[in-house]
Amino acid sequence: MKVCCLSACLVAAACAVAHAGSGDTQKLLDFYANQAKATDSAFGGFSAERGESLFRSNSTGGKPDTPSCTVCHTKDPRNVGQTRAGKDIDPMAVSANPQRYTDQEKAEKWFGRNCRNVLGRECTAREKGDFITFMLTQ
């Protein structure tokens, strides 16, 4: 009986954590959607497919040692990644890291740094929203 209750409590706690982050993630997506609408009158919403393409594709515009997000974040965004200096990076996928896209300041910091390293430029608001939308499916 204790094991059953403990299991139920753990499941409830995990659901509460995932739910707590989801509202903040939606706020972040809304923020990027408003930016995208302001710069692109044809914006029709975010796409997990475009986000996956951004995550997996190689770019020649950024640093030669980071041509793709997958170099540091692995091909499976549910896995722990590793920086070029050998430090662990928490998983990118929301299923493995429910708090990943809940803080706008952190998201902007890391998109800024990583987009410049991989693409050689800032990501657009649509690209950021597409990326997060893909990570929500993982």
Describe it.
This protein is mainly α and 138 residues long. The protein has one domain: Cytochrome Bc1 Complex, Chain D, domain 2 (Orthogonal Bundle). It is built from five helices and two strands. The protein has helices spanning 2-39, 48-56, 70-73, 104-119, 125-136, and strands at 81-82, 88-89. Strand 1 (81-82) and strand 2 (88-89) form a beta hairpin. Mean pLDDT is 88; it is low at 1-21.
Binned, the helix content reads 55-70%
CATH architecture: Orthogonal Bundle
Structural domain tally = 1
User: What is the total tally of β strands?
Assistant: 2
The assigned structural class equals mainly alpha
Q: For the CA atoms, what is the radius of gyration?
A: 17 Å
Q: What are the secondary-structure elements, in order, as H or E? A: HHHEEHH
Give the C-level CATH assignment. Answer: Mainly Alpha
Number of DSSP helical runs? 5
Portion in beta strands? under 5%
Order of adjacent strands in the largest pleated sheet? 1-2
Poorly predicted segments: 1-21
Provide the CATH superfamily.
Cytochrome c-like domain
Mean pLDDT comes to 88
* Silhouette: globular
What tags apply to this protein structure?
138 residues, mainly alpha, Cytochrome Bc1 Complex, Chain D, domain 2, two-stranded antiparallel ribbon, 5 helices, 57% helix, globular, disordered N terminus
Architecture blueprint of SSEs:
Blueprint: H1 2-39, H2 48-56, H3 70-73, E1 81-82, E2 88-89, H4 104-119, H5 125-136
Antiparallel strand pairs: 1-2
Helix pairs in contact: 1-5, 2-5
